[in-house]
Structures are given as C-alpha cells and as structure tokens.
C-alpha cells in the first residue's frame, strides 16, 4: 500500500533530494572560490597590498605583525639595501 502518510509521503523524498542537490551545488561553489582565492598575487594575509608599497614597507609590516624575528628583519633589510 502507500504507507501511513499516503501520497504526501512522496513530498518528503522530493524535499530531501532537493536539499541534497542544493548542498552539492554549494559545496562546488565553495571549493571553486577557495581555489581561486589562493591565486590572487596581491593578497597579503587577508589585505590587498597597495600598488605603491615598497619591499621595505612590506618588510616593516611583516615585522610589526610578528611574522618574522628581529634577526630575520635585519638580514632582509640589509639585503634590500644593497
């Protein structure tokens, strides 16, 4: 027979199928955005670098954020000054 819900039980199947398809589409969109975001060359830790920033300004910002040690900063600064 048709079960306890009759014909209305079919709607549950359709809703689950629709939800699954939407979830798959959202997953694909998320993966594409994730892969494209990694290719942007002007992104530095979530901020867009200004076109006029010099290498020394970027080095100072990295040192200020604690990404590099004092020794690394001094070594890189000496290299940039040459």
Automatic annotation (TrEMBL):
Domain (SHOCT) ranges: 54-80
Keyword terms, alphabetized: Membrane, Transmembrane, Transmembrane helix
Name under which the protein is recorded: SHOCT domain-containing protein
Alphabetical list of Pfam families matching this protein: SHOCT
Keyword Membrane: yes
Keyword Membrane: yes
Domain of life from the UniProt record: Bacteria
Transmembrane segments: 12-32
